[in-house]
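Minutes, project huddle
Topic: does the predicted pose make sense with adenosine-5-diphosphoribose bound?
PN asked that the exact inputs be recorded in the minutes so nobody has to dig through chat later. Recorded below.
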Amino acid sequence: LSRVLRRRQRLSHLSSLEDALGLLKNSKKIIVLSGAGISTSCGIPDFRSSTGLYAQLQEEGKYDLDDPQQMFDIHYFRERPEVFYSFAKQIYPSNFVPSPCHRWIKLLEDKGKLLRNYTQNIDTLESLAGVEKVLQCHGSFKTASCLRCKTRVPGQNIETFIMSQQIPYCPKCREEADRRQQMKKELKTGKGKGKALWDDDEEEEENEWGGGEPGIMKPNITFFGQALDSEFDECLFKDREEVDLLVIIGTSLKVAPVSEVLTHIPHSVPQIYINLTPVHHVKPDICLLGDADSIVTYLSSKLGWTIPAPAAIPLP
Ligand code: APR
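Predicted holo structure (tokens), as shared on screen:
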């Protein structure tokens, strides 16, 4: 508590827009921690606002969910993959255009001020805006993996399944299932290579394989109940030694471990929170409440920075 109090005394003078401008001007190693609030102006709902995805799922009631968050729960997905695949096309990144916030993060990078953008979003709009030092803490649709044999494929391989609301099964598992089927058939008839190829290891593997359905492919977005990729800890461990300003934009900071970034960086590092609604469970040094796009645009104008225009909208 005394450490926190000491920090509060040191930073208690920080409170306003002026301080935020001074910090942005002088900082060289800025971590931007972003959430769904920086993509709402692109037409992608956030999660917990009254108009967010969870409210929509609750209202619609058309999916068999006890709680809207179940849509992104790994245990529920294993039991009922068809529920997620009947919905996934609604959140699949398509022709969205990066917001002024995404482009502001790119501006920080172009000015050599961005240490890293830790984004919770899976829409990949940071990359579309040209941001290179972005870590997708909750993954993205860029790749997909088999829950059974862990085979990883490019996300496009399951795009048609997502768009047609079908469950994608693992091609590798299917191939293996067919191979084993064929060998067992040959074993029975005593014909073909089956006998020679089916040695004790195969017998053992058969028990592990357990036959049955091939594995289900799941996009590599982090579901509740799944650990984040180890890259998150590795980056944070490194960045915490260099960061000189933390800017948190468009997130309710409700989901760990990303929400705990604030406690993992030294208390001497100032924190600016830019969000439509206030946050109560943490105490950033400076809170700028309002529309994030408008706030970053205002800050940039006061600093004489120009937020890059949106690149040409990608052709469908
Ligand atoms: N400007 C500023 N803030 C905004 C705007 C806007 N235009 N639109 C929404 N917000 C704010 C909301 O007030 C809210 O506080 O953005 C925040 C978004 O919070 P959440 O909906 O909880 O989204 P996020 O914090 O990104 O969720 C984190 O939860 O369900 C999981 O994996 C999911 O990555 C997600 C994680």
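Observations noted during the meeting:
- The chain has a mean pLDDT of 90.
- The CA atoms of residues 137 and 232 lie 6 Å apart.
No decisions taken; revisit at the next huddle.
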